[in-house]
# Entry
Amino acid sequence: TMAANGQRLSRTQTRRRSRGKNILSKIKYGQITGLAMTRGTQIPVDLLEERDKKARWQGIPLLLRKLHESSHINNDLSKTHSVVKELSSLLSMEAMSFVTEDRKTPQESVSPNTYTFDLFGGVDLFVEILMRPTLSIQGDVPIMSDDLIKDCLSVLYNCCICTEGVTKSLAARDDFVMFLFTLMSNKKTFLQTATLIEDIMGVRKEVIRLEDIPNLASLVQSFNQQQLANFCRILSVTISEPDMGVDDKHTLLARNAQQKINASPSRAESNQVALLNIPGFIERLCKLATRKVSEASGTSALLQELEDWHSWLDNALVLDALMQMAIEEAEQSSTESSDEGSLSSSPLRHTLPQSMKIVHEIMYKVEVLYVLCVLLMGRQRNQVHRMLAEYRLIPGLNNLFDKLIWRKQLSSRTLHRQNQNCDCSPEISFKIQFLRLLQSFSDHHENKYLLLNGQELNELSAISLKANIPEVEALVNTDRNLVCDGKKGLLTRLISIMKKEPVDSSFRFWQARAVESFLRGATSYADQIFLLKRGLLEHILFCIIDSGCKSRDVLQSYFDLLGELMKFNIDAFKRFNKYVNTEEKFQMFLSQINSSLVDSNMLVRCIVLSLDRFEGQTDDIKVVEVLSECRLLSYMAQVENRLSFLFRLINIINVQTLTQENVSCLNTSLVVLMLARWRGKLPFYLSALKEKEYAEKYPGCLFNNFYHLLRFWQHHYLNKDKDSTCLENSSCIPFTYWKETVTVLLSSDRSSLCAIAMYIDEAYRDLDRDFLEV
# Structure
């Protein structure tokens, strides 16, 4: 009997021990299948009470049950709020711990309260409570207080931080996402709502349609400037194309295939149009981007404070939340902000350290400049350009350059490197975003001359007059009322700080890209001379040859800039020869070029094109002199050196590995062959390549690869107007000649001395394979 009783007791204990697990299993099963229990409120109270202490649930399931019962429509919402506060206190410490200890992934063991809250249906219940007034057909539904809404939003945000999968489940609910946007119209709940939306937007698989947001235009117009800046952080996700990996590294095959699948226009493009249709939107962004920080004394002594807190104050929303808490504690929450709406209008603003004021403003500007940058690269680029010019964005940024954008740096600051995935400080992010905006603004657009001031525009005109060449039409058409004012324009300021930048600074990369974009497009002799007179060429050569720079990204940006600066410009080649005045320096320069042709091929293209033009100008004494003296031109004039570059350019790429970054190697190889064809030497070049092929003991390999690359070139470029325009402008070779040369090379007539097929022996020929095969 004792044995039987013991066995019965043992079975009872086992059942009790497993009962907690059974409850959890049933809830999980219900949540997955939709059958049986789906939330803890469906479990009997006595069972919850019995298991609560042993399972260490902290009374959360009981509180959720109580909340469920008290939150029905027409119930006293003050009782609901008291339970919400109790739950909030149980969860907030876990969220704070998660953030301050910089954890990367949520874990049940670290956040047991939040995990229990979610498991017993807390997230769904809170969403239901928030949305219930909008779902009811009754007209006399009690109005939820702002504080109750804020507390509910904070609990949901804490769950997103601490519990895996919560953010994704909220993001999948389109009705809830749209509902959150309606809460942003309430200034008192704006910050909590914006913070939660930002988290949700970051994990959504599909970009939302801004047009679906109820009363989008009136919502945005209701924002003060502070709210609009924070809203830009959310907008950045909605107007950017989904990331397919690092853009330059993604293969063109995959990108072309994706473009065929995607509907046109994409949601991101539609969202850009929706924003541009909001009256006053761009004008307000320009005001935000160019407004000044209110001046205060003792700035330099307080700058060091940034080092202590910028790493965890990662965006303006966080700082605004702290400011709001401080204001409420000081019982200043009733103070209405002005239309300008920035922190500068609040009494608290004047008690903050100047360093905090500056970085707070910088955080705003990072978000605003990003949105403007994306819009500048979109399909409505010309419309955006007109607006940015009209609202004087560039002169405004020029006025901020010394005091805010590129103010004196702290010596202890660790500089961000281009190839590091680091959390940038606000100031570093701001500088990079500013440089990216300048790059997008100048690139292939006549408005680039707004980066100069009136005196500098006159200098360009004088250069053209002295050289007896007509002024560029875009320069003539530039509205002098919209250019930079002050002693220097933005471009000149940029070159000045570029020359002072430390060797290991990745700002060099972004600075070079911004200056290069000013030169891109149809080559302008006056633009080149303007920059040459400011010592830019010597600075670039110093960085490539003498500085010890090892960064491939920085070197590539300098090679590209040097190519644009020297192309077709005999004065630039003369200056080059003056700087590279020893064989040792020249060999160092060649070594840098040869170390990575993917990085340097645009410069190689520039030298080949320039040499070809100079060889046709032998009636000019200065040209003849430079041709005979310049080491670089003499080196490229040797056919064997051009053939060596050509052989390597074709060999380092194939159709499957082509990217936006390395497709330039294919175009550079085509430039070499087009110039050879123009001079009747194409068969000679092709024969020489075949000899090299056999010498390397890979017969047919290079030509088969090149054949498929050219077929891809037809597939890729003949459908893209912009790309073809860029090729024509940068090379001064009509695009019709590009197409003709490719057609000649791909000819199936094996008797043609200009056809690739002629140079592949039958045993090695592999031309029929589909070039799209992976």
User: Anything to note?
Assistant: The chain has a mean pLDDT of 82.
